[in-house]
Amino acid sequence: MGISMQDVEHVAKLARLELTDEEKETFNGQLNAILKYAEKLNELDTDGVEPTSHVLPLMNVMREDDARPSLPIEKVLLNAPDEEDGQFKVPAVLE
What UniProt keywords are attached to this protein's entry (predicted)? Predict the structure, then answer.
């Protein structure tokens, strides 16, 4: 099964691409080469090969979520440009 010139023109039309005759020939050759390679892959014996979603085993690499004491509010508010009632005070962003 190969890609015909009409297939290339159809895909170009769907993608709204204006291709020259030379570009159509180039894409026709490239697409046929891709299909030929895919057909070669279909020849592989994959019986007994377990399907995978990723080539490497994935695992959670995040640290454990351990509860730790927070900084005292007085020390945190030292970095605040302005504070009010133990909270950061910022300029209003809504009118």
Answer: ATP-binding, Ligase, Nucleotide-binding, Protein biosynthesis
